[in-house]
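Lay summary. Proteins are chains of building blocks that fold into shapes, and those shapes determine what they do. In this project we predict the shape from the chain. Here is one chain we studied, written as its sequence of building blocks.
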Amino acid sequence: MSWIEKTIFVTGATGFIGARVSERLVQAGAGHVRALVHTLPRAARITRLPITLCPGDLLDRRSLERAMGESQIVIHCGLAPARGIVRTTENMLQVAAARKVERFVHISTAAVHGLTPPPGTESEEARPRPSGDAYCDNKGRAEKLVARFARQGFPAVVLRPSIVYGPYSAWSTRLIAELGARRTVLIDGGRGACNTTYVDNLVDAIFLSLEKDSALGEIFFITDGERVTWGDFIRAHAAMMDPPPELGEISRDDVLAYYRRQPGILAGSLRATGEVVRSREFRKLVERIPLCERSLAMVWRWLQSRSEEERQKLRLRLGLAGGAENGAGYAGPHIPDPVTFATQTGSVFFRIDKARRLLGYEPRIRFSRAIGLVEQWLRFANYLPEEAA
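And here is the predicted shape, written in a compact code that computers can read:
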């Protein structure tokens, strides 16, 4: 019996990757697909499909047992926050092992090597090491659990995609919004390695993992196989807009220098507390408490009795003086947040030689075509205006 004729259980089916897996399974002719659904209102994309929606929670093992039923194949795309990543993966492995499933495909991430993978991590032979990022490190721990089960004969396969994009992907919707707000800059000219993985290329790799016995117990990087930089990715999205926005540029050294100038955790916390305290929303809430309302009125009367110079000195001392978006007195290019900076300054391009050799994987959809498909969807979904006829 072909794998397509078996009962297939998909976790994370309401998410970007899991929903596309579900769609492609139906397109391929799978007649017995069970989709784990944690929150029904988020399942709109897959409710039109002839699949079984199974309520459940990755953190609740009993609900997983009911949802998995007698499935023979598991495609684990589900995710949880922080430490929940490890616990949910362990729950899935234990339930699947008890059910004696025939294949378990675990969707990991190339980020097990951190947001900025160090040189030498281009192939699967490199051992992931803790990076300090909660998501990356917990995905790495989850991978180790899968490997431990695999060493005991459990039929598992691990896939490590990188920047997975396509219709519905936040990588594109968020970037279009940031481009429209002029909040996107190229770091060092956009030379950082992007390692794109178009979602349908990833699904192809998943299907090959179900077919090939050579995949059992193995880990595979899955990318588009092209050396796409962040500059390529960002400029391709900017070109979809009319007129295309101008892209600011900033050097890696300038970003690091900016962050070195920022206040430490204590001063930063005091400043943030001041921003909250002086906000209108906070004041309205506090004024509902009679004692606080009276105290605030007293403080306000006291402040009104001081000179403007004295009030400004007090604001500065408490860190309540307002500043520019990127820090007080800063007037340069937009400063990327730390996660964006770490993600876009890597130099490692992951190799897919192993996937080509053992899976027969060959990326079908090239970057140039994939970007065109993304643009079509962004216009259809009203993230971009429809082009004139």
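What the prediction tells us: The domain at 3-182+195-245+348-380 is CATH 3.40.50.720 (Rossmann fold).
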